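Lab notebook, design round three. We kept the backbone fixed and only want residue identities now. Task for the bench partner: fill in a sequence for the structure below.
Input structure tokens:
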């Protein structure tokens, strides 16, 4: 709430946010109180995350790499492996100062190269590719992106759920 109060002074908005944070989480039909932070998937979670991590944005130095962040997902783009390692150390240090830590399962250094593995970020897969170069033009290297496999599977599952035969309302005429 201190981070929120740095930017918002309207007491009715602050009161509403405090109430939302104290509301708790429903698990198995029982309301569980929240000790700290916002519940995962909560209505105000993305807003609170952006307000809180705005401190990270202010403290980040572009000499450590270019930080791209959306809510709690982020990528740091660097020119070399050593710069990437320094950026990861700096990021970890800044997050610890905020009482957070990077999720080990999602934190890694990826070298973008033609034919390399690429990375998934915000539901898209990003990979370095080379254009074919037509009619005498030179091939160009660029960062291509398309929906990630996980995002595509989620979309397929959702379409399947919405179009199940049991959901269809057939007119008995």
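Proposed sequence:
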């Amino acid at each position: 709430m201190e981070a929120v109060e740095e930017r918002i002074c309207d007491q009715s908005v602050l009161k509403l946010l405090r109430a939302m944070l104290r509301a708790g989480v429903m698990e198995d039909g029982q309301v569980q109180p929240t000790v700290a932070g916002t519940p995962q998937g909560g209505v105000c979670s993305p807003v609170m995350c952006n307000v809180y991590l705005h401190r990270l944005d202010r403290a980040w130095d572009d000499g450590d790499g270019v930080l791209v962040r959306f809510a709690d997902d982020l990528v740091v783009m660097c020119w070399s492996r050593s710069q990437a390692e320094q950026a990861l150390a700096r990021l970890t240090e800044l997050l610890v100062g905020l009482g957070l830590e990077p999720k080990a399962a999602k934190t890694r250094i990826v070298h973008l190269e033609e034919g390399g593995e690429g990375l998934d970020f915000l539901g898209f897969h990003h990979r370095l590719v080379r254009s074919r170069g037509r009619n005498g033009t030179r091939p160009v290297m660029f960062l291509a992106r398309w929906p990630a496999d996980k995002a595509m599977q989620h979309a397929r599952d959702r379409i399947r759920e919405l179009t199940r035969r049991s959901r269809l309302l057939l007119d008995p005429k």
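Keep this in mind before ordering anything: Strands lie at 25-27, 30-32, 66-70, 73-77, 119-121, 124-130, 141-147.
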